[in-house]
Amino acid sequence: MGLFDEVKEKAEGLFGGAGDKAEGLAESVKEKAGGLLGGAEGKAGGLAESVKEKAGGLLGGAEGKAGGLAESVKEKAGGLLGGAEGKAQAVEGEVKSVAGGKVDSVMGKVEEFIDEKTGNKFADQVDKVTDAVREHLGGHAD
Asked: If you write DSSP's letter for every residue of 81-123 in order, what string do you get?
């Protein structure tokens, strides 16, 4: 087995699909948050209409008041949805940060392995390649 094959096998073992898993997890969080937000927005709109209708009937023609109440409900629901969207984005950022840390750790081990096997003869080239891989997979170049 050549050095390249040995390095490749070691890197594949270390990665274990971490980049793909992190990307899939981030996408899943984003999709679920989008589904929750979309459902909540529809419910808020329906609730506002229901409040408007019931208030109009109870107040006997005080439709202006009901309309104002419905608008108030819509505004408050919109504020709540905006907060949920921000939280979903924060979770996505955190997932990417954790994944980036894993990528950095694995690439550090790959660098050490190659440098050890080659006696640091190719340290500059190894550093450039691992930095490119880190950036591609969401890690941080050194």
From this structure: HHHHHHHHHHHHHHHHHHHHHHHHHHHHHHHHHHHHHHTTTTH
Average pLDDT of the residues of the chain: 73
Q: Are 52 and 46 in contact (CB under 8 A)?
A: no
- Calculate ∠ Cα 121-18-36, nearest 5°: 150
Phi, psi of 120, rounded to the nearest 5 degrees: 65, 15
88 has pLDDT over 80: no
Residues 6+ apart with CB under 8 A from 22: 95, 96, 98, 99, 102, 138
Q: State the pTM of this model.
A: 0.38
pLDDT the model gives residue 25: 67
Burial of residue 12 (CB within 10 Å: 0-12, 13-18, 19+) is exposed
The type of residue at 115 is D
Sign for the pseudo-dihedral over CA of 136, 90, 99, 115? positive
Q: Which residue has the higher pLDDT, 8 or 118?
A: 118
